[in-house]
Design brief:
- The chain has 281 residues and is of the alpha/beta class.
- The protein has two domains: 128 residues, Rossmann fold, CATH 3.40.50.10860; 135 residues, NAD(P)-binding Rossmann-like Domain (Rossmann fold, 3-Layer(aba) Sandwich), CATH 3.40.50.
- Helix content is 36%, strand content 21%.
- It has ten helices and twelve strands.
- It has a six-stranded mixed sheet, sandwiched between helices. A six-stranded parallel sheet has the order 9-8-7-10-11-12.
- Helix 1 links the parallel strand 1 and strand 2.
- Helix 1 crosses helix 9 and helix 5 packs across helix 6.
- The longest helix has 16 residues.
- The radius of gyration is 19 Å and the shape is globular.
């Protein structure tokens, strides 16, 4: 469906600090072409100490919404007037919609994007599987609710600082079979290991027991880079059935945000292929 050109072009941005290298403008522009929605989408670097002021300026100027990334996701959650179910418990938001009445609606599409990539793109079964989630920061908290909604047999959160993993698991205790601890408390084998630590950014690898990956198990890094991360190499060395980076999660969370704003979920595979082939930046 194409939108008449006389209709107001909706304005969006991805806000972070730093933000220059974000792929979100390319992704949303490609979605716009695929769906016939007219929009503009830019990167915007908010001052570290004035995220709220930046949002207020956008609202006053009549913008329609924004994506939010590091380090503002918690603040984005705080300034919202209404939150989606997933955003509520995530304590962080990556998608804001500015409503005509001045109120702000917040969603968190990181977890739904991750689950979509795992199930639809990588064809991984999550129900009744054992999942090991590495890390206990904002990135991991943001994906817990959608992951638990898939009803895995067990979800263990392992973190360098064990108490944070235990506390996070306690927060989500009512939602599914979840527990947490240090890397030294990892026991048994897992069908899927997801790395949500910032270790990949530093080229480091969380200390994993050699035998924690089930035969043909999958290793998924929520990060992506031009080269495989240390965790992805670990997966290859430990004969994982599948090793993936977080590029698919990036595209799928963007598609869910697009759906929140425009009421249509774009097809994602051509965009994902374009990013992987370097045709899109
Ligand atoms: P994010 O919002 O990206 O999750 P964060 O909230 O600062 O960022 O969390 C970073 C996560 O990566 C934490 O789980 C952190 O472990 P600690 O809680 O012990 O700090 C983890 N992390 C960072 N560097 C790491 C490393 N080199 N090895 C293992 N874990 C690491």
């Amino acid at each position: 469906m194409s939108v008449p050109s006389s209709e107001k072009i909706k304005r969006f941005a991805v806000i972070g600090n730093p933000i220059a290298h974000s792929k979100s403008p390319s992704i949303h522009s490609a979605f716009a072409q695929l769906t016939g929605v007219q929009l503009s989408y830019e990167t915007l670097e908010a001052p570290i100490d004035d995220f709220k002021g930046t949002i207020e300026q956008l609202q006053e100027a009549g913008w329609d919404g924004c994506n939010v990334t590091v380090p503002f996701k918690e603040q984005a959650w705080q300034i919202a007037d209404e939150r989606s179910l997933f955003a509520q418990r995530a304590g962080a938001a990556n998608t804001l919609m500015f409503r005509d009445d001045g109120s702000i609606y917040a969603d968190n599409t990181d977890g739904s994007g991750l689950v979509r990539d795992l199930k639809h793109n990588l064809l991984l079964e999550l129900k009744n599987k054992r999942i090991l989630l590495l890390g206990a920061g904002g990135a991991v908290r943001g994906v817990l609710e959608p992951l638990l909604a898939e009803k895995p047999a067990a979800l263990f959160i392992a973190n360098r600082t064990a108490v944070k993993a235990v506390a996070l698991a306690e927060d989500f205790a009512g939602v599914g079979v979840i527990s947490g601890g240090g890397f030294d408390s990892i026991e048994g084998q897992f069908d899927l290991i997801i790395n949500g630590t910032a270790a990949s950014l530093q080229g480091e690898l969380p200390p994993l027991p050699d035998d924690c990956l089930a035969e043909k198990g999958a290793c998924y890094d929520m990060m992506y880079a031009t080269k495989p991360t240390a965790f992805m190499l670990w997966g290859q060395q430990h004969r994982a059935g599948l090793v993936a980076d977080g590029m698919g999660m990036l595209v799928e969370q963007a598609a869910d945000a697009f759906d929140v704003w425009h009421g249509v979920r774009p097809e994602t595979l051509t965009v994902l292929a374009g990013l992987r082939e370097g045709v899109m930046s």
